[in-house]
Amino acid sequence: MEDSGLEQEVRARLAALARQDEDPADVADWAIEVMNRDDLEVGDPKVWTALDRLAGADLQSAPNVYLHSIQDFEEWLTDFESDLNQTGL
Q1: How many domains does the chain have?
Q2: Which partner for 61 in 42, 55, 67, 74 could form a disulfide, CB atoms 3.0-4.6 Å apart?
């Protein structure tokens, strides 16, 4: 079974963060917008968990110090892909 459009987009955003190709604030804003949609895919626990993490991608522990690192983004991507593989996708 192929990934849904939202799953593909979540994977792409996670990968972009891990590569430092997207600004964490932009990704966080996108994730929050998606979480507020009335979309059945958003209710999928694996998608919701990934979106929840992405929504916090721009959190700071101090001024100009991000809470999450590239390593965190890589782990989030690995976790998401593992979750997808466990459901047979």
Answers
A1: 1
A2: 67
